[in-house]
Amino acid sequence: MTTETSNRQQPAREGQSASVAIVTGASSGIGRATAVALARAGHAVAVGYRTDRAAARRTAALAGGRTLLLPLDLSDPAAAARAVHGAAEQLGGLDILVNCAGINRRSPVLDETLDDWQRILAVDLTGPFACAQAAARRMVAQGRGGRIVNVTSVHEFVPIPGGAAYCAAKGGLGELTKVMALELAPYGITVNAVSPGETATRMNGVLDDRDLTGLARPAIPVGRPGRAAEVAAAIVHLTGPDAAYTTGVSLTVDGGLSLMGAVANQRDAAHEAHAWTVAPVAPAAPDASEASGRSAR
């Protein structure tokens, strides 16, 4: 494992040890915002990235504090787990893991290939499991509890055309979160998920230096995409002491998007009802109306 450390913050006071966080997918987007927020809260942070080392350095520069650049490729889950273990060794422990790395693609079920299916599940489900397992083992051995947060998606709950592999992976990660929460609670480890809706990040085609929250999104109740920092705030809350009694939940941060499932149908039904109401109806003779009523039953 190749690493690079940075120290720009006063060390912990004597008798105290700074808590250690690992954030995967921290070279951009929600992962970057989370790593920065955790570092500014006083945690030592391992900045996980796959290939873009320069972007990871940018995250570390924004974060300040004690940071570690951590190359970590979730398409090789076993290697990713070893990277988590190595980072914990180098930083002197592990208190927080945020599984934020992931990939998103669309393919109709009839066209999906097994290779692409397995790649999505490796990066979005098996890799996060391997990292969480490695982190949990370290936390149990330390005996001081810990926090694990898995970043899923509203598509943990809401299907989308072309999203078979992605939705399956995110749904699986959400259910894995609940199982881990049950099993790890006796060790003082909480496990939660954050499920973002549309967020203005690189995964959604938005460069890191652009803020597209002014972009109109009529289908989202708040009317815009989310900011990475808004999702990161929820993640950081779940890693903190105020969330010690919260475990096994998926906290949705989507501007209300997942509330909209029935809205289109309601709108269409209302339009149809209006059409029936305003359509001219010729009065029927009493005998015809009575006969028609009987035959309809």
From TrEMBL:
UniProt superkingdom: Bacteria
Ketoreductase domain mapped to chain residues: 19-197
Pfam family, one: adh_short_C2
Top class in the EC scheme: oxidoreductase
EC number: 1.1.1.-
Keywords assigned: Oxidoreductase
Molecular-function annotations in GO: oxidoreductase activity
SMART domains documented for this protein: PKS_KR (SM00822)
InterPro entries the UniProt entry points to: KR_dom (IPR057326), NAD(P)-bd_dom_sf (IPR036291), Sc_DH/Rdtase_CS (IPR020904), SDR_fam (IPR002347)
Family: Belongs to the short-chain dehydrogenases/reductases (SDR) family.
Name of the protein: SDR family oxidoreductase
Species of the source: Kitasatospora misakiensis
Organism classification: Bacteria, Bacillati, Actinomycetota, Actinomycetes, Kitasatosporales
